Amino acid sequence: MAASSAALMSYLFAPKPLFPSTGRKLLLRSYGRRRASTIGMELEPGKPISQFKAVDSHVHVWASREEASERYPYFPGHEPSLPGDSEILLKCMGEANVDGALIVQPINHMFDHDLVTRTLKKHPSKFIGCCLANPAEDGSGILQFEHLVLKEGYRGVRFNPNIWPSGQKITNDIGKAFFSRAGELGVPVGLMCAKGISFHLSEIEELCSKFPSTSVILDHMGFCKPPINDEERKAFSGLLRLSKFPQVYLKFSALFRLSRNSFPYDDTGELLSQAISSYGSNRIMWGSDFPFVVPECGYKEAKEAVSLIASQIALSSLDLEWIMGRTAANLFQHSWTKKI
Fold first, then answer.
1. Which of 157, 239, 262, 269 is least surrounded, with the fewest CB atoms within 10 Å of its CB?
2. pTM across the whole model
């Protein structure tokens, strides 16, 4: 690494003042494996559960074709195959009575966050943002991350191992610098293990052990399908084993990616039941994976599927409340507060 890059890396690893929000502690850490329905379930003392609304923890938005040609270009080779602009999302959310959402920066715009930033500023009571980590070896991606959090108000950062430099793991120097800084800023790290959780278990365990103050969210249940063979059972057991780290959360999201069945994806019920037994419902959050979910079953139906699955596995109404919004609201404090 060149001298200038080495100097930058030295800066990145040096201790820095904490972002104002990092004074908060990881909530419900002491509950470990206990079911969230048993203790410590109130976001605010005395506030009725019924006032907590639905939050979608996993959506994407990208530019329309016209916007892409004029101002928000797609990243070459990642032109979307379906519409995903924010107005469509807002319409879907309205029809499904979903009050807020976490927008995850889509790979369609790669590290150009202008479109998502515009959306966040236009609808501050509806959306918060999760940026995409740029693992550039010169450390420039971490500087961009700091800007997006400190200046643009992003509340999360996504690790996509598939865009890490060839042959490198997310536990390389850049990955550790990102992970450390995320903890300092009070920003959860979302992990997309698209090739399967098994490929990244040791890396996740290493990062969680080294940086216990950094919250982690595993997208789409670590891409674990209902296991039907030893390899899949081992992968799911690995996912459940990560519950020993109190800072790890799960997204029960993109059910169409997990299920072998069509809507309402009822074979994912056992996944959810075991996840709750290990993590507690207060560490699990629902996500639709808009707009990909729209042609699969529809947005409103994606939300309804969780209620149907909850009924199938006799989930308590309080557990369902946590999964459908309270967990996200707890993790991302002071978000979706104006109208929720």
1. 262
2. 0.87
Q: What are phi and psi of 76, to 5 degrees?
A: -50, 130
Task: Give the domains, in start order, of the chain with CATH numbers.
Answer: 55-331 (3.20.20.140)
Site of tokens 């596995």: 313
Tell me which residue of 76, 242, 58 sits closest to 158, measured CA to CA: 58
- 287: enclosing H helix or E strand: strand 284-287
* Per-residue exposure over 99-126, b if at least 16 CB sit within 10 Å of its own CB, e if not: bbbbbbbbbbbbbbbebbbbbbeeeeeb
For tokens 């309270």, what's the residue? 326
- Cβ neighbours of residue 189 closer than 8 Å, sequence gap 6 or more: 156, 157, 158, 159, 178, 179, 182, 214, 215, 216, 217
Are 280 and 35 within 8 A, CB to CB?
A: yes
Return left, alpha or beta for 186; rule: phi > 0 is left, psi -120 to 50 is alpha, else beta: left
Q: Mind listing the pLDDT tens digit for each residue in 206-236?
A: 999 999 999 999 999 999 999 999 999 999 9
Distances (CA, A) of 213 to 144, 181, 217, 280, 303: 21, 10, 13, 19, 31
Cα–Cα dist 158/192, whole Å: 7
The amino acid sitting at 258 is L
Pairing assessment for the beta strands 98-104 and 54-59 based on DSSP bridges: parallel
